[in-house]
Amino acid sequence: MHIERVDPLDLDLDTADALAEVFTASERADGPDLPVRTGPDLLTALQLGSDSRPVTALWVARDGDRVVAQATADLPWRDNTDRADVHVRVHPDVRGRGVGGDLWRTALSFVDGAGRSRLHSGAWVGSPGVAVLERWGLTRTSRGVIRRLDVHATPRSTWDRLYVEALGHAGDYELLRQVGRTPADRVEAMVELHASMNDAPRSDADDEPDRWDAQRLGDYEGAMAGRRQTLYRVMARHRGTGEWAGQSMLAFNEFSPSSAFQEDTTVVRAHRGHRLGLLMKATMLAWITEERPELATVDTWNDATNHHMIAINERLGSTVVATRQGFRADR
After folding, report:
1. Topology alike, domains 2-134 and 147-330
2. pLDDT at 176
3. Domain boundaries, the chain
4. Any idea where the N-acetyltransferase domain is (predicted)?
5. From CA 284, how far away is CA 290, in angstroms rounded?
6. How do residues 156-181 score in pLDDT, each as one tens digit?
7. How far is it, in rounded angstroms, from Cα 123 to Cα 30?
8. In what order do the strands lie in the sheet with 297-303?
């Protein structure tokens, strides 16, 4: 086995294809039925992340010429600068040979050198990774749950009915749609809508709020565009005051056009209690399935404590496909 650190910006498509195969084989072995990861998808994710910056550090393990494992360490830089997120994936063919532990120790040495005191990772519930992370000295934090909506198996009448129900409580609001980047005259409002997500349930009480500004919004939207993740937004605005009240975002994966991922859905605190979350999400599903008929599934991630949003997703037809156990260690 040979481990080398690779600059994500120097990553070639052949290596990215091999890493995607490791990623997919690892998840298949661990239980989650998640969309197959492609090389271009993984390559752009490693190079652009969610803020137009590459993942901080990437290590690749090879058995001869074959790529068999990877590790990443990501160091937040805008906020939460005491935190590091480390993830290791090993192809099931070579598990039990120590390569995962070698990658983990390599990443930890990097994290310690960067002076980060909070280490975070995770593993799929029901997989060997849970016991491995506990053996490596991490403690369990909260859980994140992925639910999937099969848009072909869910009757369109479900979303129409829920839309009418929600509209009965939200007559003072209008809905607007947006595809792609935010126009200049809407940037300030969009920054506020993103910032309103900060009071959603969090997996770590020590996490600082995300500080949103125009630069961060531009970096996020630029990263998603570069990753070929087309952003669809449904936004709510109060008719009387013109105040922006909420948004729901969906990322359509152009590399795998049968799948999409639900990004943030948030309602500004002053406008809660009008079923805007349900209204926006029902509107989104009716829109996206008409706009992109090739779409088959929409996956969404919720903190297990976010009972309000979970209830909305389940009413829309989503069911659990995977649960991620979070872990933390203080260095």
Report:
1. yes
2. 98
3. 2-134, 147-330
4. 9-165
5. 10
6. 999 999 999 999 999 999 999 999 99
7. 9
8. 2-5, 57-63, 66-74, 83-90, 118-124, 319-330, 139-150, 297-303, 259-267, 244-253, 229-238, 173-179
Angle at 30 between CA 60 and CA 126, to 5 degrees: 130
Average pLDDT over residues 69-87: 97
- Whole-number Cα distances in Å, 193 to 7, 103, 148, 229, 271: 34, 39, 25, 20, 12
Between CA 155 and CA 316 the distance in angstroms is 10
For 65, counting Cβ atoms within 10 Å of its Cβ (0-12 exposed, 13-18 middle, 19+ buried), the class is: exposed
- Tokens describing residue 4: 């080398």
- Assign domain 147-330 to its CATH superfamily: Gcn5-related N-acetyltransferase (GNAT) (3.40.630.30)
Mean pLDDT of the chain: 95
The hierarchical CATH code for the domain 2-134 is: 3.40.630.30
User: Cα separation of 145 and 195, whole Å?
Assistant: 22
| CB distance 246 to 276 below 8 Å | yes
Indicate if the pLDDT at residue 108 is higher than 70.
yes
- Cβ-contact 80, 207 below 8 angstroms: yes
Q: Which of 228, 75, 72, 205 is nearest to 141 (CA)?
A: 205
| Cα(122)–Cα(55) distance, integer angstroms | 17
pLDDT for 204: 66
pLDDT at residue number 203: 62
**Sign of dihedral through CA atoms 206, 209, 211, 216?**
positive
Q: What is the pLDDT of residue 231?
A: 98
Query: How far is residue 228's CA from residue 316's CA, in Å, rounded to a whole number?
Result: 26
Q: Report the pLDDT value the prediction gives residue 32, as an integer from 0 to 100.
A: 85
The alpha helices in 49-186, defined as continuous H runs, are 99-113, 128-135, 156-167
**What pairs with residue 323 in β-bridges?**
145
Q: Is the pLDDT of residue 23 over 70?
A: yes
Question: Token match 């859980």: residue?
Answer: 143
